[in-house]
Design goal:
elongated, single chain, mainly alpha
Length: 790
């Protein structure tokens, strides 16, 4: 059915074009022979093709453009006739004898154009006559194209200031009157299209109307080009007349398009000076009009105008632009109670952007906008609409983008209140935006109060807002979010220890409720921030000002104990053990023996009770040994207790090679270079001998289980430990012990039961080269190594 209609239309268009071309041919022949009467006869017949009602606007436009081209040639002929002495007044009268009204009016407009150019009559009189005559066509499509032709031929002949057609007085008023009258009539015709034909074709009609809208809008463009329209005339005549037509037509398509046209074609300074009048029209528009888009475009234009030059900013203050826009938005929302929440947020988002551009120093204005937004959201609860939540993210991101400083945004009391209306997912998005802004601008958030406010804003990342689990959350996304929180914690700093301690306490309060999945990410940066503060206070007396509540290392360590303890409850024992050892090392640097001992005790308890995985045990025991070896604060008794425990743990590891390596690592606990009181050669030797026994046992077990003795790597490693302590001057490690160990390794490597191991061979060869190198050094070292036969 639709295909048939399209085919019919193509046929009618083809027939129309054929008729038009045929008459155009005869018209040209008459023009060539200067036969005026025939030229008018055939041109009228040619234009009669435009009387059709069968074509859609799109197809009618094709026909019209062909007729338009022919009319331009006819106009040239009329000019030639006038030059040859033909009276243009007579010609103007003559064309009015055409039989049909539509061809008659097209010819009249064409001659009228030449009439104005001849200046035989004032332009204003001819234009007034033409615009009145065109009322004879009331068919919407035919009338629109006729008036569009009139606008086209007259646009360069308006009696404007500085124009060659300028009359004696007030001619600009006549030019404006002509364009306004044509605009009004065209808009009426355009709106009338909506109410013709059956209701089922409503969508088709709306599509056709949208194709024709530029014909109407062109009049407003012509108005904006008239030089003589100053601000006063625009304010008193042009804008009120145009708005009257827009409001009275009560057609949503026309209202939306024309309001947008007004905003786009007239200068920004005019909009600024006539804000009252322009904004007063918005609440009067039809409820279905997309006011939010039009108003947003107006605010965007004004924002760009403000950004173009600092000189125009006083104008904004003078006309109280913010107050007027804020008031207008309130009225529009009131007049449209069914406006979707997306529309409301979009309006306030545009107003906020305008405010930040025009009044960046007025935080109270920005807060006022956010407050108004909160009032509208308060009746809605949590937002379900995806587009609305995205618009809120844009709204809340605007102050961050403008000020590049979260500290400024924290001064906006309504900022966190808007966040409350976001669902937990969007809350996370917004929290990420805030953190990224801080990272990008390296913002210093340096007081506990601001940290408190900041962590309220990003609570979507710190805890579960809706009590939901994380099962459905992508693991990589979750890690990325928590790592960003960790980076943020590291950025918080204040040089004043008292304030920094308050910041640490504030962060602790917020992150400890984060749940078992978040704490392993957020506790370590807090611990290291605290340890940084400890290092800052290191060496201070217990209470530098004699105040009981002043911040001291001991006080921080008490807090650290509580913080790390939360990881034990999750449980995350390996991480907690590492942090306890870090704290112990910091306590060691502060000469706080009881505190350091307590941290070691906690680490040992974790090792004994919580860490059962053999790999985790190996890592933990080497961490314990490494940390304990660096401790200088312990007295003999405490050090012995901790060392004894560590060696005991080493000997109890599951695999013999792991036992061996842990036991020979313990040898360093009895010999520390920079501590004269920790140089016990005998116990070093005991450890190394014990390691040798374990290495032997490992070989025997391998022999029994696999039929081969396995690698000699452990023996070479122990040999290297012997050489290390021999070089450091341990009297218990002598040449004989090293020599026997060298022979043992050589024998084992040559044994039939040993497994070939290129890595062990290379390691041993490297060790032998080292011994030779030390011999060749000469001096005391050379003498020491000389007796060793490698």
């Amino acid at each position: 059915m639709i295909a048939d209609g399209v085919e019919d239309e193509e046929k009618w268009l083809a027939a129309g074009i054929a008729g038009l071309q045929q008459n155009a041919f005869y018209m040209h022949r008459a023009l060539d022979s200067n036969n005026l009467r025939d030229a008018l006869k055939y041109s009228a017949q040619m234009l009669s093709e435009l009387r059709t009602s069968r074509l859609s606007p799109h197809k009618y436009y094709e026909l019209y453009m062909r007729a338009f081209d022919e009319l331009r040639k006819l106009e040239v002929f009329f000019k030639e006739e006038a030059r040859r002495g033909c009276s243009i007044v007579d010609l103007y009268e003559l064309v009015q004898h055409a039989g049909n009204i539509l061809p008659r009016l097209y010819l009249l407009c064409t001659v009228g154009s030449v009439y104005i150019k001849s200046k035989e009559a004032p332009a204003k009189d001819v234009l007034k006559d033409l615009v009145e005559m065109c009322r004879g066509i009331q068919h919407p499509v035919r009338g629109l194209f006729l008036r569009s032709y009139l606008a086209q031929v007259s646009r360069d002949k308006l009696p404007d200031i500085g124009s060659e057609y300028e009359g004696d007085a007030d001619t600009v008023v006549d030019a404006v009157e002509f364009v306004l009258q044509n605009f009004t009539e065209m808009n009426k015709l355009w709106v009338r299209m909506q109410h013709q034909g059956p209701a089922r074709e409503k969508e088709k009609r709306e599509k056709e109307r949208s194709e024709l809208r530029d014909l109407v809008g062109k009049n407003l463009h012509v108005l904006s080009q008239i030089e003589g329209i100053d601000l006063d005339m625009y304010k008193d005549t042009v804008l009120p007349r145009v708005l009257e037509q827009v409001v009275n037509c009560k057609d949503e398509i026309a209202q939306y398009y024309l309001m947008d046209c007004i905003i786009q074609v007239f200068p920004d300074e005019y909009h600024l000076q006539t804000l009252d009048v322009l904004l007063g029209a918005f609440p009067q528009l039809q409820p279905a009009v997309d006011i939010k888009t039009v108003l947003s475009r107006l605010m965007e234009r004004l924002s760009n105008y403000a950004a173009s030059s600092a000189d125009v900013l006083p104008e904004f203050l003078q006309v109280e632009a913010f107050a007027k826009l804020n008031n207008a938005i309130g009225k529009v929302i009131e007049a449209q109670p069914d406006m979707p929440i997306l529309g409301v947020i979009t309006l306030y988002s545009s107003l906020l952007t305008f405010t930040l551009h025009v009044h960046p120093d007025r935080l109270d204005y920005a807060d006022q906008v956010l407050g108004a937004c909160v009032n509208k959201l308060s009746s809605k609860g949590k937002l379900e609409d995806n587009k609305a939540t995205k618009q809120i993210v844009a709204l809340l991101s605007a102050p961050l983008d403008k000020y590049n400083d979260i500290v400024t945004a924290l001064k906006l009391s309504n900022y966190p209140r808007v966040l409350e209306y976001l669902d937990s997912e969007t809350n996370k998005v917004m929290a990420t935006v805030i953190i990224q802004s801080i990272m990008k601008n390296k913002t210093r958030v340096s007081t506990a109060d601001r940290v408190e406010a900041l962590f309220e804003l990003i609570k979507g990342l710190i805890k579960d807002l809706d009590g939901g689990a994380h099962d459905e959350v992508d693991e990589d996304d979750f890690k990325e979010e928590q790592n960003s929180v960790a980076r943020l914690i590291q950025l918080l700093h204040n040089d004043d220890p008292e304030e920094m301690f308050k910041i640490i306490c504030t962060v602790r309060k917020h992150i400890l409720g984060g749940g078992p999945k978040r704490l392993p990410f957020t506790v370590p940066p807090l611990v290291f921030s605290s340890l940084k503060l400890v290092r800052q206070l290191q060496g201070q007396e217990e209470n530098p000002f004699g105040e009981e509540d002043s911040t001291t290392p001991k006080k921080i360590f008490q807090l650290l104990n509580q913080i790390v303890e939360t990881l034990c409850n999750i449980p995350a024992p390996e991480l907690a053990l590492q942090l306890y050892l870090q704290c112990a090392e910091a306590a060691n640097d502060c000469d706080l023996e009881p505190v350091a001992y307590e941290f070691f005790t906690q680490a040992y308890i974790l090792y004994e009770e919580e860490i059962s995985d053999s790999r985790a045990q190996i890592t933990a025991i080497h961490l314990i040994i490494g940390t304990l070896q660096r401790m200088h604060v312990f007295g003999v008794e405490n050090r012995d207790t901790l060392t004894h425990k560590a060696t005991g743990y080493s000997a109890k590891l599951l695999k013999k090679p792991d036992q061996c390596r842990a036991v020979y690592a313990c040898s360093h606990l009895f010999w520390v270079d920079d501590q004269d009181n920790v140089k016990d050669g005998e116990r070093v030797l005991l450890c190394l001998k014990r390691a040798l026994r374990i290495a032997n046992a490992a070989q025997q077990m391998s022999n029994a289980a696999r039929g081969s003795a396995g690698s000699v790597t452990l023996f070479v490693e122990i040999l290297n430990k012997y050489l290390y302590f021999f070089e450091k001057g341990n009297p218990q490690i002598n040449v004989a012990a090293i020599q026997s160990l060298l022979e043992l390794v050589t024998t084992e490597m040559q044994s039939d039961s040993s497994t070939p191991d290129p890595a062990a061979d290379a390691f041993f060869a490297s060790t032998l080269r080292y011994i030779e190198f030390q011999k060749q050094k000469g001096g005391a070292v050379g003498e020491k190594y000389e007796p060793i036969k490698a």
